[in-house]
Write a structure and sequence with these properties.
Blueprint (H helix, E strand, L loop, with lengths): L5 H19 L7 H24 L4 H37 L8 H31 L31 H12 L7 E7 L6 H9 L2 H6 L2 E5 L3 E2 L2 H13 L8 H12 L4 E5 L4 E2 L3 H13 L5 E7 L2 H7 L4 E2 L5 H12 L7 H4 L2 H8 L3 H11 L4 H8 L12 H14 L4 H8 L10 E2 H11 L11 H14 L4 E5 L5 E5 L2 H11 L12 H4 L3 E2 L19 E3 L7 H6 L5 E3 L20 E3 L20 E3 L21 E3 L1 E3 L12 E3 L19 E2 L1 E3 L9 H4 L6 E6 L7 H5 L9 E7 L12 H7 L8 E5 L20 E5 L18 E5 L6 E2 L1 H4 L15 E3 L5 E5 L6 E2 L4 E3 L7 E6 L5 E5 L16 E7 L3 H7 L7 E7 L7 H6 L5 E5 L19 E5 L21 E5 L20 E5 L19 E5 L20 E5 L7 H6 L12 E5 L19 E5 L18 E5 L6 E2 L10 E5 L6 E2 L11 E5 L10 H5 L6 E5 L5 H7 ...
Amino acid sequence: MADPVIGATVHVFLEKLLSLTIEEVKCLRNCNKDVDMLTQNVSMIQAFIHDAERRQVEDQAVEQWLKRLERVAEDAENVFDEFLYESRRREVKIRNNPMRKVSGLFSHTAFKSKMSRKIKNINEELSAINQLANTLSLQPLKGPSRQILPIRETDSVVVASDVVGRDKDVAEIKEKMLNMRVDVVMCTIPIVGLGGSGKTTVAKIIFNDEEIKQHFEKRVWLCLPEMLETKSFLELMLESLTERKLEVQSRDIIVKKLQDELGGKKYLLVLDDLWHVDPPTLWHDFVDTLRGINTFRGNCILVTTRRDQVASSVAADPHKLKKLTDDHCWSIFKQRAFVDGEVTEELVSMGNRIVEMCKGLPLAASVLGGLLRNKEKHEWQTILGGNSLVAGGGDSGENNLKKILEFSYVYLPSPHLKKCFAYFAMFPKDFEFEKDQLIQLWMAEGYLRPCQKTTLMEDVGNKFFQILLQNSLLQDVKLDEHNNITHCKMHDLVHDLAGDILKSKLFDEKSDGGENLSQVQYFGWNSPRDKIDKINKPGHLCTLFLRSNHISEDTLLSFQFLRVLNLSRSAIKEISTSIGKLIHLRYLDLSNTMIKALPNSICKLYNMQTFRVNNCFSLKVLPDEMGNMISLRHIYYKSKYKPNYHHPTGWGEWCIDNYLFHMPLKMGQLTCLQTLQFFKVGLEKGRRIEELGFLKNLRGELTINGLQLVHNREEAGRAYLQEKPNIYKLAFLWSHDEPEDCQINDEDVLDGLQPHPNLKTLAVMDYLGTRFPSWFSEELLPHLVMLKLSGCGNCKEIPSLGQLKVLRHLELVGFHTLECIGPPFYGVEVNNNGASSNNANIQVFPLLRKLVLEDMPSLTEWKGVELMPTGSGGRGGVGVRMFPELEMLCISKCPLLKSTPNQFEILRELRIEGVNNEMPLLNLCSNLTSLIELFVNNVKELTCLPHEMLHNNFSLQHLWVLNCGEFREFPQSLYSLRSLKSLIIKDCTNFSSIPVPSGQNHLTSLQSFQLYNCDGLTSLPSGLLEHCPSLESLAVYNCNNLVSFPLHVWEMPSLSAIAISECPKLNSVPTGGLCCLTGLRALSIGPFSELVDFGAFQLIFNGIQQLSSLRTLWMYGRAHWDSLPYQLMQLSALTELGMVEFGIEVLPHSLGNLTSLGKLTLVRCKLLKHVDFLDAMPKLRHLEIRDCPLLEALLDGLVNLVSLEELILRNCEKLQHLPSRDSIQRLTKLRHLEIHNCPQLEESCTNLTSQITAPIFQFFH
């Protein structure tokens, strides 16, 4: 079978050979004639490749000719690569020992002689191949090959074009999501359609829709084609929500953490491209678990799938995507094909043929548009003129799409680009590709050939990436804060094409031996790692992606021609010193491994271009001789943490073990280096800041730490940052630990670190100067978008930043001596007459979106500037417009602050905490009308929110008041907040009054109302919640003086979660039961006033058995209540039960009726003596018993808990008997056992580890 990639492979090999002969073989003596002959042979053979690639489909002899040529070209590349390595090794040796240049001359001469013989042999092979081409009547290519056209910068995010033809689908699905029935907890909507019909696109539009974002507090996007178990999906959900990789954990722990993340929040889950659910009952288990995790109503799962069977198994009424109309296909095509939007009449005439080829699939229209983009009319005619790839009008939509994709590949403008495209098959479907990593891999494989116009391989790679993106072969791009593309994905149908192209060279499950394995060059992420030893010609392997516990020295050395070795996310802890013998290696990735040390031999990899050891938390140092790796272009060795508002930098990235780490010596010798994310200054020569000065090609981001070791401005200036135009992100860090009387030179050092004007992001940390240098200005930082100044404890003034015209994000943290923020901050100058130097209206921080002021203990005043005097003696002046675009303001830990400006035109989010005086809050809000979120925490003197503030901000959706000890009441205007969704008052001990609603104003949008630790509150007005049809969550907890509570709450069917707990004086409890709460999923109730006896408490539960949706119940009783409400035993659907402070001595046998119970918790049951489970509870996975001082034994009935995974026992002083050894061993699913402060069990627990197979066992005495 013809190899679709062989032509491109041979092209790339031959072009590399030409460049190598020109650059590296000049110095070989006595073989100039052979080199000239080799160059001539290669040039002649190149002319035949196009014809051979076309004829190989039908002529086996031509196919064999191509394979022979491929083998010879590959061998030749290895020969020249060996010479290149030796040349670089010699260069390093001479540089390190300049006085010994003659040393080793004989051996080098012998090496040259060996290379000359090898070149002669290669030349003979190529001559024979050239002669065979004539025998086969191969025809040379006539005319120039296709050229790669320039990339228009405006097209870099072309994927973000408006979606066509799916407005109706989006609207219908949104309607279902936003208007589901009030009693529905979880709605599932499958979107089903052909591959390439736009299912994922529709889901993406909905997922990112502003109305959807407002409606769902949490959104999770997952793509996992097969559902084979529930746990893996839950785990991926948690990882998505927390942005952290999970360690191995039990399902119950994952569920509990998901409850922490999703509890009380409405969420949207998208499962994209689901192919298979096995068994079908697994879906119901998954959804039931989600319903138990979050009892809020209105949650939604959106599923996209090509398979009707999957769609029908998850919901009864799937949304089917129909094919697009011809007009819509033509519209999508035009977006892609015509750069300037102008369409000539003669090209419009071809429209019918184009839309016929699309078969109603938007991906087909998009790919065709990318294919014909920037093409001339004759090229359109060639492509559309009945070519066999697009002929066959009777094909189905997906088959036709596959042909279009194949055609798009064929018309890629260079063999190198075709190789780059095929390389995507190395990764699994739906993989999120990092753009820079892709380009570095392409470079290591030799696919990126510089030219006169594009001299850097990385720039060639960027151009290739843009072409693939414009041709719709890539999609779902992600952007950083500066709108640079960082990641992308590939449609699975396009990925299938890449797999088909590379399959003869890629090891996969179907590579069963023989000829197939002899051609293998690539071992990807999906290659079967347990079959790696079956590769019968390991010397052909050039790329190895392997996730394994260990890679042996023999295995490593057998792959002697490796260019790429990716061991990231594998379980390796060490790597053999033999890695230094892989002289062809250009890319090595050990990221996210437990590797503890790197062998020094790694520094002998003189061809290495990219080295990655990100997130290697056990790795303490890098080898000192890394300066010898003279081909290095990219080094990554950062540890990344989830960014945290309270993190010292807030941007959450550091290098390897920051405090112990020191740089390898003489990094300045790596003159090819472009990526060096972190540099730590040292005292020793070779580790000083001057090393950065030699690295003229640095680009991207750079953090410089240890700046306290730089002595003066001149030394800092030797980093030559001002001459590095491609660095767009800089961070300067000091680590002061000098004696107090030590002279601080931070001002001079920072002055010498002036960056290039292209800089976009700057952070300065722990700077102890008293002022900032003059280069903090619009003139010298015209492109600055983000700025963070933190730990500047000696600065009494903030630099003038208000005129930075593109600044969008500003954080000022830790200015401990700053007392006032005033006009100098805004950069507004006043002349001697009192007039502004600019007579026009002035804008201050014209584009700033987010401002953070934090940890300023001396700050008392923040002044604004409203009007600049004109100096004429009149009342006129120049207007000053402050913060016209500011949307988010955070003020934290500024206890003495008393005044603030009030000119914030569109502020949407205000967070103020740790401020003693209430005036800053009142000032900030006095003119606001745009607030969406208001968070007030620890404002000590705040007594009431002003009437005008609530009245004017009628769009307010979220209001939090926390830890405000003097806060007493809300004004009547609280009820004007008709958009309010959540209201939370917590730890406000004097809060005592909520007004009674009057007129027509009510909190009609309220979904969540929570009161915690408000001891001043005695009652809630009956009308507070009476007109809240959307109320879903209600929590009143630990309000010690609350006496009355509106009883109509117990009749609100919208409620899905109620917690009325620890209110010891509350005596107004429902007597009619809970039967009206038809949507209730979680209930936490009691204890109440002592006037509420057990009989009255039991009445509350009347009708609870009718609540089919109830899944979680927590009951708080009294120590003298010796029984449980009888209605409890009828809750067969209950999945979680907690019982606190009941006076029962044993668990009632009827508890066995709770056949769905998965979690049982017993707390402070001080008379409880024995726990036994005589009746089976088949689903109970988690059992926790704590603070039960009389508990003596867990009896053998525990064995009936066949699903038990986790058992926790805490503070049970008399507990001395556990089930027998035989019973313990029968708990085969037990994975987690904890025993805390149970002293009588000490002896038993000594032997317990031999009785139980639980991998996690903890005992605390």
